Amino acid sequence: MKRIGLLTSGGDCQALNAAMRGVVKSIVNSGEQVELYGFLDGYKGLIYGNYRMLDISDFTGILTRGGTILGTSRVPFKTIREPDEKGLNKVEAMKHSYYKIKLDCLVILGGNGTHKTANLLREEGLNIVTLPKTIDNDLWGTDMTFGFQSAVDIATQAIDYIHTTADSHGRVFIIEIMGHKVGFLPLNAGMAGGADIILLPEIPYDLDKVIEAINIRKERGARFTIIAVAEGAISKEDAKLSKKELKEKIAKSKYPSVSYEIADKITKKTGQEVRVTVPGHMQRGGSPSPYDRVFASRLGAEAGKLILKGEYGYMVGYKNREIVKVPLEEVAGKLKMLDPDAAIIKEAKMLGISFGD
Length: 357
Ligand code: F6P
What we know:
The protein has 357 residues and is α/β, with parallel strands linked by helices. The chain is built from 13 helices and 11 strands.
C-alpha cells in the first residue's frame, strides 16, 4: 500500500493530466494498493494543507484534457524560506502536510522554479519524484519537457494564419512567441511556420540587420515578411546592459513588450507598415498534442515504476531518446538554453532565415 501525494506547480501546460494519469495507472495496474492525495493549486495546497482525496476514476478521461485537474499557482522559490503574511513557516508547513497524512512520496509536476522547491523538500527529507513540464523546454536534465510540442503546434498555427493576411496586405508581421528567457519554442514554431526572421534571447539582434533582411526580401519580390520574435528577444545594445540596468530600462519602456518596440522602430526607420500578434497564453491552452499525450504518459509510467521501487529524489526526464532518472540536485537551479552554434541554427541560416545577427 502506497500513500501518494500529487501536485502541479507553476505555469500550466498541456499534458499535465496525461502525466498524472500515467503515474496513477501504472501503479494501479501493477496491483499495488494506493491512496491518492491531490494538493490543490501547487505548493499552496501543500503549505496550507488543502488537498482532495482522489481515486482511479479521477484519472480516467483526462488524457486529452488540457490544464490541470489539481489547479496550479506560482509560489516563488526565492520567498519560500520567508514566513507568509501570518508568520507561517512555509517549509515546515509543507513538511507537516506530508507527514500528517503519512505520505510515502510526493509527485511534483513542474518547471524550473518548481524544481528548486522540489529539491529543497528532498533535502528536508521528503520522498520526491518529479516530472518535467513547461512549454519553454528550458528545464535542465531533459532534452524535452511535456507541453513543449503542443505549444509549438499552436504557435506554428498562429504563424500559418498570419501568413495569408500578411500576403494579402503586403505587410511586415511580428508574431511574439512565449518561451520566457529561452528560444526553443520561438525557434521551432518559427521554422515550422516558415518565418523569414527569428529573433531569440540566445542570439541578440541588430535592428539594422533585421531591416536589411526585410529589404532583401522586398528586392526579391516578396510582398510580406514574417518575424517570429521570442518574448525574451534582446537587442545587441541591451545585451551589454547589466541585469539591473536592463530591468530598469524595461520598467521605463513605453512598449508593452519587445515586439512592439521592434515594430515601432522598423516603421520609424523604413515607413513600412508593421503589425504585431501576440498569441500569449493560447500557447499553453487546449488539449495536448498526440506527441505530448504519448510522451507525458511514458514519463508518468516511468515515475510510477520509480515509486513502486521506492527510488526517490529523481526527475523522470528524456535524454538521447531514452527515458532516464535525473537526480534532483542536478536539475535544480539550472537553466537549459539554446546553443547559438547548434546545428539547427546553422541549418535555419542555410534556409535563408535571418536571426538579425
Ligand atoms: O513558463 C511558461 C510561460 O508560459 C512562459 O513562456 C511565460 O513567460 C510565462 O510562463 C508567463 O507566465 P504567467 O502565466 O505567469 O503570465
